[in-house]
Amino acid sequence: MEQLQGRDLLGIADLSSEEIKNLLELAQQLKSGKLAPKCQKILGLLFYKASTRTRVSFTVAMYQLGGQVIDLNPSVTQVGRGEPIEDTARVLDRYLDILAIRTFAQKDLEIFAQYAQIPIINALSDLEHPCQILADLLTIKECFGSVEGITLSYVGDGNNVAHSLLIGGALMGMNVHIATPANHQPDSQILQQAQELAQNSSKIVVTQDPIAAVTEAQVIYTDVWASMGQENLADQRIPLFQPYQVNQELLSHADSEAIVLHCLPAHRGEEITEEVIEGKQSKVWDQAENRMHAQKALLVSLLGLS
């Protein structure tokens, strides 16, 4: 994975299909213990948004590699007092070996990448969540042996996770069906990018019909109906999104061997029922664990560890 050393990951399309395949294979080797590279590098975490899985999985992954982690909480650094991103980026570039950022605006990531020479990782933005999708692809690969030709149906809000699923699925030859209410569909530019990447290798479908989207699908995926920063909209969204709940009835239209994924945190009884998330088809906990393994593979590759 030498070709990834020193690079940024701002969106899933920063990786080629071959690089994603190699990352997934490396993640499986790291997960099995067949590889155990060590480093003395320092990872910075600059999170403007709350986080459980991303923060902990990055931290544990780096510690297991032998590196160190610095939590750069914006509320106790000059970032929180309005220091320009350009200045912060150039200073952190002198201290750290790699930096993962969770932020609201994708533009912030682009500025960090422009002014810092160290690798910058998108740990979630308003536009994409590429680290989540690497873990999702790893989980699907573990369940089905390959992601190519698999049909994944995402049901809910056309948000950052949906965006990265569209692009990641298109890169990997996976069919991606998105079912959302009107006016909550994915960004049109992201959708066009996914369609161009898919070409004839996979099928990209966006619909308002959740049953049509999940019919015969092997992977059913959902996320909260109101993303971070939209909590004040949650109550008014519930009636609109109720037909898109992943429940046993909706699941009955999918492939009999279908798995269920959710990037978490989950609002049980809203976008997914207790019965489904705790059911035999749920792979949500494997998916959450795979955040650590996929991100460890990413760290190994971007840092050029051997």
TrEMBL record:
Catalytic activity: carbamoyl phosphate + L-ornithine = L-citrulline + phosphate + H(+)
Location in the cell: Cytoplasm
GO terms classed as biological process: citrulline biosynthetic process; L-arginine biosynthetic process via ornithine
Cytoplasm found in the keyword field: yes
Pathway: Amino-acid biosynthesis; L-arginine biosynthesis; L-arginine from L-ornithine and carbamoyl phosphate: step 1/3
One Gene Ontology molecular-function label: ornithine carbamoyltransferase activity
Enzyme class: transferase
Binding locations of L-ornithine: N160, D223, S227, M228
Domain Aspartate/ornithine carbamoyltransferase Asp/Orn-binding: 148-301
Signal peptide range: none
List of residues binding carbamoyl phosphate: S51, T52, R53, T54, Q78, R102, H129, P130, C131, Q132, C263, L264, R291
Keywords: Amino-acid biosynthesis, Arginine biosynthesis, Cytoplasm, Transferase
InterPro entries, sorted: Asp/Orn_carbamoyltranf_P-bd, Asp/Orn_carbamoylTrfase, Asp/Orn_carbamoylTrfase_sf, Asp_carbamoyltransf_Asp/Orn-bd, Orn/put_carbamltrans, OTCase_ArgI
Limits of the Aspartate/ornithine carbamoyltransferase carbamoyl-P binding domain: 7-142
EC number: 2.1.3.3
One GO CC term on file: cytoplasm
Family membership: Belongs to the aspartate/ornithine carbamoyltransferase superfamily. OTCase family.
Name of the protein in its database record: Ornithine carbamoyltransferase
Organism: Stanieria cyanosphaera (strain ATCC 29371 / PCC 7437)
